[in-house]
Amino acid sequence: MTIEARIRHDIEERIRSGEWVPGTRIPFEHELVVTYGCARATANKAISRLAREGLIERRRRAGSFVAHPRIRSAVVGVPDIGALIAARGEVYRWQLDSRAIDTDPPEDVADSAGPWLRLCGVHHAGADPFGWEERWLDLGTVPEARDVDFSALAPGTWLLDHVPWTDARHRISAVPASLAVARHLRIAAHAACLQIERWTWRNGAPVTVAQQIFPGDRYDLVEDFTPRA
Asked: In CATH terms, is domain 71-222 a member of 3.30.70.20?
């Protein structure tokens, strides 16, 4: 095994074993030179290959860090974000930011029984923010939501477990991070983000409207399909 291959193998083993979690800074190239007794070019080549494979991410002037795994979900369907994150081996956490009762329905909603419970919060993957969510629940359709403590339980998870729906609509957009969202997600203002808006109904009655925003390098939308007959 060449020195370059050994460097890559050792780093990859620490990442896949969980010893180095996403966000961990890996040794600088000059540190690898000392550890492995190799040339700087050899260390650079090993790090560059790991970056191309998506295991690490290089940040200018800051070094190289274990990359956050990209989350993949189907374009069609209503995914449980917590389950997706847990399936990738990361610890999931929901953090409620605000809770209020709103008498006005959200955008693009008609025939609302209302009032609406409006919840805002952050999905976390490990120690880092993963996505921002703003969600409305129609208390006329789902009155039991008024008494649920959403401080640690994500509303989407609760809905999937307790409230059946019959129809849904998605709208997927590329958007810049607003100042408020950037602050919550700890990213640069106006950074490229993926926005998913979702409306669900139960037999024609609105159930929930959600707006979720994810940093553009964290979330993949994937759908398998076959040609139409």
From this structure: no
Chain segment 78-112, per-residue pLDDT in tens: 778 888 888 878 899 999 999 999 888 787 776 77
CATH 1.10.10.10 is right for the domain spanning 3-66 = yes
Q: Give the bridge partners for 197, in sequence order.
A: 171, 211
Instruction: Note the pLDDT tens digit of each residue in 46-80.
Output: 998 888 877 888 888 788 998 876 655 555 567 78
Domains 3-66 and 71-222 are alike in CATH topology: no
Cα separation values, 157 from 21, 126, 138, 200, 214, Å: 25, 18, 16, 14, 17
**Residues 6+ away with beta carbon under 8 Å from 189:** 176, 177, 178, 179, 182
Long-range (24+ apart) CB contacts under 8 A made by 93-97 are: 93/123, 93/124, 93/152, 94/121, 94/122, 94/123, 94/124, 94/150, 94/152, 94/153, 94/154, 94/157, 95/121, 95/122, 95/124, 96/120, 96/121, 96/150, 96/151, 96/152, 97/121, 97/122, 97/184
Q: How far apart are CA 41 and CA 4, in angstroms?
A: 9
Instruction: Tell me the domain boundaries of the chain.
Output: 3-66, 71-222
